[in-house]
Amino acid sequence: MRLKNKVALVTGAGRGIGRGIAEVFALEGADVAVNYVEEQQKAEDVAGFVRAQGRRSVTVNADVSDRMEVQAMLDKVWSDLGPVDFLVNNAGIETIVPFLDLTDDQWTRLTDINQRGAWLCSQIFCRRVLQVGRKGAIVNIGSIQAGKVLPGRTHYAPTKLALEALTRNMSAEVTPAGIRVNCVHPGLIDTPMTEWVMKNPELLPGILSQISVGRAGSPREIGSVVAFLCSDEASYLTGQAIFVDGGWVGK
Fold it and tell me: Dmax of the chain from CA atoms?
């Protein structure tokens, strides 16, 4: 197991890609803190899966755009599970709004969660890790929309592309001190967020025809890449953004 006896904090881990990441981490031997904002029972279900693998888990409610809540979250995880080795900034929201109809509030709320949240969680994590002289790894979860234009996402896509710059710049500053930082851009992944696509017989075939492997991915396929990036096998890999999209961007 590549992550045996390590501790990971995965934001937005109650469902979808976050859940897949948390499950793979547990299967790879890590203890996992499951962050959520709503749907506590789903977060508890993920924690139950982690414990069923013989690992420890806690659920923690926190809005990643709120500094006080993020600080309290890290304090709780550190207290309950021990020093945190890995942070996965997965929490995010997506809305589809035509550019000309986009409101100030819609722009602000989405960028606060998707972009500011990743910066905030990372800063608090890095300060704590470096303060006690430990090392670690961060993985930011972006989106296919960092490299592919889809209508109605003029507020969403910039937040995901921004994670590439955040990744590179954080890496330049904290990797010399022992914290590697990378970014994963998932393609079409079969999750509750993409259910409206997966169940649309008129829309889905056209999208799949653009994907080289000809299918949607699974949350655990993203989790496997994230686990690799956190493991010692990726010890010489930092500041990178990787598309895990079945060949959608490149086709």
Answer: 54
For 121-161, write each residue's pLDDT tens digit: 999 999 999 999 999 999 999 999 888 888 888 899 999 99
- Catalytic residue, chosen from 25, 86, 156, 243, is 156
Q: How far is the C-alpha of 214 from the C-alpha of 196, rounded, in Å?
A: 18
Helix (H) or strand (E) holding 139: strand 136-141
Tokens of 85: 């080795």
d(CA 224, CA 135): 21
Q: Which residues contact 139 (CB under 8 A, 6 or more apart)?
A: 86, 87, 88, 89, 181, 182, 183, 184, 226, 229, 230
- 236 part of the active site: no
Instruction: State both tokens at 118.
Output: 């990743």
Q: What single letter denotes the amino acid at residue 179? A: I
Which DSSP category does 102 fall into?
Answer: -
What is the token pair recorded at 242?
């990787």
Q: How far apart are CA 20 and CA 69, in angstroms?
A: 24
